Amino acid sequence: MEFLSGIPKALSGAWASVEAALMGSPSLAGIGLLLAAGAGLALAVLALAGLVRLVFVMRRGAVANSIRRENEIGARIVVVRGGPGRRRAIASFLHKAVDTHLKDYMFGGPFRVMSYPGSLEGDARAQQLLARTEADVILWAEAPRGAVGGAKGFARILSRPTNTFEAAREPVTLAMPKERNQWNEALSRAMAYAAAKQFRPALGRPQDFRAERLQPVVESVLSILQSKPKADQALLAEMVDDSSAGALQLAFAGDDAWIDKSVEIARSTLGEINRSAAPDRWIAANITLGRALRLKAEKRFDPVMLREGISHLTEALEALRSEPRLKLAESAAQAIGEAQKLLGTRRKFSISGGGI
After folding, report:
1. DSSP label at 214?
2. 213 and 345: one domain?
């Protein structure tokens, strides 16, 4: 206890010594004054930074609440403004793209494009923002890790599930061209289509739409592809497949003008696909071309064309049969059939009392 009681006295004595030294030396007093001023300035800067951060947090919260309350305007499309430099430029491009071209793929449905301040990094934060704002689609920009000034950036899109039973969707990542002069009208339309498809995945199922609603979308996608935008390769492949399936659906809807187009588009699509790199796309393209050739041969009977269609369908079927998933499904179906057959036999045996 005596030791503890001596600590305040020792500290008081040390402070008195320091004070006496400062008073006796003007140079030390000046240094002390400068240190005190520097410490005060540092505290003021930290306080100001904290205040600015608090203001930004409050502003983002207010914007999120405002977006959530806008529930009578149709689809809510939120574009995060992005961080500094390239990310902000990508975000600005995305905002203009959806604001200008999204209407071409919304079938007349209402929507509103809104901005959200700040930047966004990572899937988890994107999911949090989606839940916080209750937006239907969020678009934002990210830069690759360790990127420097001229590196490529990415556009990212996340959409809300259409019903409570659907699992949370994963965001898609689309590479942006490095050169700004490639950020043209065709790329803008392609990005708008990507956002629309995230909001409405049925765009990849043309059979879900009536011909008069489907045709403008198919024509728009074909027009984009003809312009050859420097878009992400996965997005371009998706658009090629969607336009091919859409053209075939229009042909089946009875529009004779689309019969020849569907064959031409399907043949071109199949020619662009590397079977080893994209086996599922290759199978789907063969089926689409086979169906298109069969429809054309049905309208104007041509045995050569019909045999070609059968050949493409056969190739697709053989490829499917080699798939482990299909083999497993066939095995399960066979087991179900055998079990049902056994159950039927046992019932007959039971009814007959075991007699022959």
Report:
1. H
2. yes
Biggest distance spanned by C-alpha atoms of the chain: 125
Q: Whole domain around residue 75: which residue ranges? A: 70-198
Q: Which residue has the higher pLDDT, 122 or 216?
A: 216
Torsion of CA 338, 344, 346, 348, to 10 degrees: -150
Q: Which amino acid is at 256?
A: D
Sequence-distant (≥ 6) Cβ neighbours of residue 159 within 8 angstroms: 136, 137, 138, 169, 198, 199
Alpha helix stretches (DSSP H) within the chain: 2-24, 26-69, 86-101, 123-133, 185-199, 211-226, 233-252, 257-272, 279-299, 303-321, 324-351
Same domain as 347, residue 322:
yes
Q: Please report where in the chains the tokens 């009875």 appear, as a residue.
A: 254
Q: What is the mean pLDDT of residues 166-179?
A: 91
Give the pLDDT confidence of 29-88 residue by residue, as tens digits: 556 556 666 666 676 667 666 655 555 555 556 556 666 667 777 889 999 987 778 889
Does residue 4 lie within any of the structural domains?
A: no
Q: What is the pLDDT of residues 255-275, one digit of tens each?
A: 888 999 999 999 999 999 998
Number of domains in the chain: 2
Quote the pTM value. Answer: 0.75
Pairing of strands 75-80, 137-142: parallel
- Which of 160, 229, 161 has the alpha carbon at shortest distance from 191? 229
127 and 223 part of one domain: no
Q: 127 exposed, middle or buried (CB, 10 Å; 0-12, 13-18, 19+)? A: middle
* Residue 346 lies inside a defined structural domain of this protein: yes
What pLDDT is stored for residue 51 in this prediction?
A: 57
In CATH, what number is assigned to the domain containing residue 170? 3.40.50
Residue 81: CB atoms within 10 Å: 17
Which residue in 76, 132, 133 sits closest to 102, CA to CA?
76
- Residue 138 maps to a domain: yes
Burial 53-71 (b: 16+ CB within 10 A, else e): eeeeeeebeebbeebeeee
